[in-house]
Amino acid sequence: MTTISKFPLKEYLLLSARVLLAWTLYRYGWAKLTDGQFGVDDKTMNMALKEIDLFRLSWYLADHQPFKAFIGVSQILCAILLSLNRTAIIGAFMSIPIWLNILVWDLTFMGNMAVAFTFRLSYYLILTGLIIYQQKDKLIPAVILTTQVQQTVKFPIWAYMALPVTAIGIEIAGALPNAVLNYFR
Fold it and tell me: How far apart are CA 173 and CA 181, in angstroms?
C-alpha cells in the first residue's frame, strides 16, 4: 500500500490530465458523429448571408461531410490513444494539431466567446506538453513503434477510482485564469 508521503503526485496528476484530455476529445468527437455539434437552426438558414455572424456561419460550414466525420473520428482515435499507456505519447502528439486547430478556429470565428476557449485550449496544450515531457525518454521508441511503453508508476486501486474527480479538479484549475480575468473586468 502506498502511503501519502510516498504517493507519486506528479505522475498521478499527469495520468489525471491524460484522462481529462482523452475524455474531452472523446465527448467532442462523439458529439460530431451524433449530430450534437455543428450545424445551424432553420431560422439561421432563412437569414440573408450578410446577417449571419461568423460563429454561426462557421458552424454551418463545419457541419458538412466528410469534414465533420473526419474531425469526430480523429478526436475519438486520439482519445483512445491517450487512454492507453502503450500509445499515450502518440495520442499526445496527435492531439496537438487538434487543439491548435480548435484554438485558431475559435479565435477566428467566436468573437467575444473566444476568450474562455483560448484559456482552456491553451491549458490543454500545456497539459499535452507535460505528458510528452514526462515520457521524453520514450520519444524515439514511440515514434518508431519498436518498443512497448509501460506506465512508469503503479497506483493503488483507490487512485484509479479517483481519476475522474482528479481530472475534474484539473479542469477547474484550468478555468481559474479565465475566472480571475472576468472577476477583474
Answer: 14
The DSSP result for the chain, as a single string, is: ---GGG--HHHHHHHHHHHHHHHHHHHHHHHHHTT-SS---HHHHTS-GGGS-HHHHHHHHHTSTTHHHHHHHHHHHHHHHHHSGGGHHHHHHHHHHHHHHHHHHHHHH-GGGHHHHHHHHHHHHHHHHHHHHHTGGGHHHHHHT-SPPPPSS---HHHHHTHHHHHHHHHHHHHHHHHHHHHT-
**Residue 162, C-alpha cell as written in the block:** 479517483
Domain extent for 87: 4-183
Rounded percentage of the chain residues whose pLDDT exceeds 70: 91
- Is residue 87 within 8 Å of 81, Cβ to Cβ? yes
Instruction: Give 115-174 pLDDT, tens digit per residue.
Output: 888 999 999 999 999 999 998 877 776 566 555 556 678 889 999 999 999 999 999 999
| CA atoms of 48 and 38, how far apart (whole Å) | 19
pTM for the model stands at 0.80
CA distance 142 to 85: 11
Q: Structurally, how many domains does the chain consist of?
A: 1
